[in-house]
Amino acid sequence: MISTNPEWDIRNIDLAKKPIYAFTISGQTPIYTTHDLTCENITGTLPGYRPWLKTPRGATQSVDILAGSSSIGELECEIIDQDGALRTLVGSTDLEGSTVTLAVGYPGIACSNFVVLHTYTLYKILPARNYTGWLFRARDNQLKLKRTVYQHPNNSYPLDESNPLILQGTPAEIFQALYFWALNRPVAELDRSILTALDAATEGLYNTVRPFWFQLTEAFEVKQFLESEIFKPAGLYPVIDNLGRLSLRSFRPPAAGPNPVFTFSADNMVMLPEIDRMPILNEIVFKLDDYGDGPQTQLVYIEATSLSTYGRAGQHVIQSKGLRTVLGAQAWCEELANRLFRRFAGTPAALRGGAPVLRIEAFLLTLPVWLGDYVYLSHPLMPDILTGAKGLTNRLFEVIDREPDFAAGRMRYRLLDTGLTGLQAAHNWAPSGRDFVIEQSEIY
Fold this sequence. Notes:
3 domains, seven-stranded mixed sheet, 34% strand
């Protein structure tokens, strides 16, 4: 959940409110707003501004938990060119690559209490339809991960067999090594507090086994490498916070238990939730020990109860060139398989069948809810497809899709059932005893 402030919170919970959006381009004045700040009684020292901004739609971001990936958010802001000043600015200044922010406030609050919603990088500027204004399009900082690394960061020579890039450590450590070292990006662009928490000894999550060891001898795209080789095999996915910082989330909750930041209810939703279900997953194949001639070890995990109940429903293949048996990869794979089965095999009593996925539409007051947050959902009319009862109370979900519609004053979300309702700590995640079959084979 993004950080707000008490003055902003008081205005935000009002159902009848007038959001004021402010768009800023780094190094440029004025800022552009949807309303006249003086007329709306915005207090404090006001920056130079022009009330020429149309209400933006907002940037959408979604995650694929099983693939360890998330979409690159795109923000488009249209600004009316009232006196040709924007045409002159665009024509005389290199704006692409600048950092842009979109903030929101309400009438009567201090200018300093506007809350930042998005911090993105400007990549394209186009004339609007009929040439009455300009479209400013920006993307989130995952765009910086789309770079291809051709050279070794230490010596600037091309990567090859005689000049390999060696990476070893926890997923968060390898992520940071690539971001700071290979891409030469600043520390401020990562949320290091979250990354440090993932590796904390109290979590027992990623620091007890460090099974990744890579020897990279050819060019690679950083985003694709991280998602397929690190995040997917580690049960992680990337998230961009409102300040533009890259962070990681695990589909296993913190050791202290999930901390729901909001409760969705009939009072703050504008429609009945639409219900879907994830496919049942009861066979997981890990391919590892790749020393340059393909994976030499295959681990197959089959969830026995799910298999007997549903038959062979779904297979999930995880392959990483860096997973090494000699570094403890088998224990790692077993733990990850157990976590995946606990959530997606459809066998726990609290999560019978495919995990429910809800699509909801809510009022704008839910705006601080962010991707990767844990939230409660309660609704007296919604059928509980896991029990057959009518009504749902404080069911725990994870936000996997966030789609603002500022013009309509609505927020749309997709929520994935965690299977954790009533299970408050991470060490309760795995059931007592491991009810799945493990098969190991060599690949020839």
